[in-house]
Amino acid sequence: MSIQSLRIPSLLLAAAFAAVACVANAQPAAPDDAAAKAQAEFVEKAKALTEEQVMQSHDIAGLSQLGQFYSGQNDTPRLIWVLRRVGELSPNSGDLKMQLALAYAKIDDKSHAYDTLIRMQTQGFGYDISRDKRFDPIHGTKVWDYIVSNLQVNSKQFGEGKPALELAKGDYLYDALAWDARRGDLLAGSARDGAIRRVDAHGKAADFIKPDAANGLWGIDALAVDAARGKLYVASSSTTIYQGFNGNNAGRSGIFEFDLATGKFVQKHVFAQDGSVHRITSLAVAPAGKVYAADAMNKQVFTLEDGKLRDIVNNPKLTGITGLAVSGDGRTLYLADYALGIFGLDLATGKAFELAHDQSRLVLGGIVSMQWFDGTLVIVEDGMVPKRIMRLQLDKDGRSVASTMPLDVAHPQFVALGASTIAGDKLYTIVNRQDGLYDDHGVLAEADKLAPTQIYRSNLRFAWGQKGVGGSGPLEVRDATHADLKNSRPKSVPTPAQPSGNH
Predict the structure, then answer these.
(1) For domain 173-461+479-487, which CATH number applies: 3.40.630.30, 3.10.310.10, 2.40.50.140, 2.130.10.10?
(2) Is the pTM of this model over 0.90?
(3) Fold of 3-158
(4) Residue range 5-26: average pLDDT?
């Protein structure tokens, strides 16, 4: 799926904090009396906030603004409170943890800086901080040397996967893959021209399905194969990234069904033009043939029933659904949230749960693709540092992670991980997703940087007989009722009102 389609503030806060000095020091526009009053009230309240009040907040946007203010005021103790709280709300973000360690280093708080960095190392984060001058205040100890060494070890390349093939350079923006086992072809979908192409073992692509008046396809966002029934499901939408975007099709989206062998159009299920905007970015097919589809931005999951799209998950507390997978017995639907991790839904009871795991040793954030394979979940973590592909062995009831096995980590080709698909016991993954070359209006702003689409092959049975690492042990599985998934709203603790203008 296109990560450009998501706006996930919780994982962008680190970048915001890194740039807050520039924001705080910029010359503001001349405010009117109301704006000046609002700004003064914000400053007064921000300076009066206690640690307890900050640590109770669930308002990430408000916390982000506070972080900018405290950084600009050089109020490092309060900035630390904010970073700690945002880190709790976004527990999988390595960049936020690094910002917290830097804040501790700035005030020469070695104990807390070391503790933060050691926790990061234990979780698997890999950074080279040996030459980062911002850490100078905490240099010169054996603990520092230990931390630097172990963070570097985590960032080393690992795994036996290899580059598999590449798709010819062009204005295609491929980030949808599927596997046709019977014909031995990869299927690649273009978000730009709406075409689906068959790709042979040498990377030669041939048109298979193209938009026409009969099928009404737009840009391709996701693909899923039902091999047992010979069906190909396509998630398609008309956004500014699609070359055929116009006033008549703007915002249209749906799921399209084709014959897998011939590409013949069968039927489509398109969202009604009722003022709402949907975009399906992940698809999964259950063993019995039922189709599940995720709308990332609206935090919804739909099923196809009686020719209609029916929502079964609608949870604003999620930050964005970036992957779907159905268990081999068809009883559990797993969904990946880029910031928050992996959740499951018991499809018989409608009862939801958070996939339990040892958070001190395993990060389940930054997932851009997820697959079910022989009793395990395979995740592609583009938002992890280092980028990696992991296999998660689940316990017998599928509600917690029993052990993990890194498959491929920090490969030089891992520029921007994207869509993946399973072919036998291999995983094919796009590793240089190129949506960042397009602006918000769908214009190819950096055409000179276009490159062939690289597809990487991982061995899903790598170290299959080994126990793996990061065993979870006894874990609490946190449940949520189906009603909670359908109707929950994010909790917010008030923070100072946002002033008009800069500050």
Answers:
(1) 2.130.10.10
(2) no
(3) 1.25.40
(4) 38
